[in-house]
Amino acid sequence: MSFDRRIRIAPSILAADFADFGAECRAVEAEGADWVHVDVMDGHFVPNITFGPQMVKALRPHVKTVMDVHLMIAPVDAYLAAFAEAGADVITAHVEAGPHLDRTLQAIRDLGKKAGVALNPATPPEAIGWVLDRVDLVCVMTVNPGFGGQGFIGAMVPKVRRLREMIGDRPIHIEIDGGVTAETAPLVAAAGADVLVAGSAVFKGGSAASPAAYGANIRAIREAAEAARS
Ligand code: DX5
Ligand code: ZN
């Protein structure tokens, strides 16, 4: 995984057909996805349950690009090795998921993976000020985690701008997760984001058997984001 700040679109398979994940991953990649975003939920840290490391392992052969695993689980440390072995490229843990964020981020890097840290909407950017040198990606939640299809929280845009300033020249991605559409993508791209997770806005109108809409949706988000930067 080389680093640059080009706009990357990461479809969240939370909005895919749960009976056909392998085909859905292949379809979004064929239609232009840069990464595939996998939302792991435990029914405890967030009020929803999705899937675990076995699912990540099963999907790995179907994802040629970057497998971006977003852990909405607490406690998280005990499961990091399982997700690393399952084939995740990026492992993101939440600031709010435990008292020892620095240890969690070190553990992810020690497993040879890129370390991500996610911030819930109420969490200030300064919460990660002292761990930035251990981080490869900051995920700004622009909805409260747990469900797809929620509305984008506009108050997060200045938070993105602040994080971009804090990051400076460090090779750290800023990822946006929640409510990303062709309408909201320009706001966060202009504020400094480069990885855009999108679930419903990518998967709407298509299917693995008929994926042209996925491609059109990905292009619309990418073009809107790129236009906001120039
Ligand atoms: C929310 C998840 C998101 C979600 C995004 O808890 O982390 O990745 O799937 O879905 P949309 O794009 O529909 O808001
Ligand atoms: Zn996510």
Characterization of the model:
The chain has 230 residues and is α/β, with parallel strands linked by helices. It has one domain: Aldolase class I (TIM Barrel, Alpha-Beta Barrel), CATH 3.20.20. The chain has 8 helices and 8 strands. An 8-stranded parallel β-sheet has the order 1-8-7-6-5-4-3-2. Helix 2 (53-59) packs parallel to helix 3 (80-86) and helix 6 crosses helix 8. The longest helix has 18 residues, at 212-229. The radius of gyration is 16 Å and the shape is globular. The mean pLDDT is 98. D-xylitol-5-phosphate binds next to strand 2, strand 8 and helix 7.
Portion in beta strands? 15-25%
Apparent shape: globular
**What's the helix-strand series?**
EHEHEHEHEEHEHEHH
CATH class descriptor: Alpha Beta
CATH architectural type: Alpha-Beta Barrel
- Bound compounds, please? D-xylitol-5-phosphate, zinc ion
Summarize the amount of helix as a percent range.
25-40%
Termini gap: 25 Å
The name of the CATH superfamily reads Aldolase class I
The averaged pLDDT comes out at: 98
Contiguous helical run count = 8
| Strand order across the largest sheet | 1-8-7-6-5-4-3-2
Structural class: alpha/beta
CATH topology: TIM Barrel
**What is the number of independent domains?**
1
Count of β-strands: 8
Radius of gyration: 16 Å
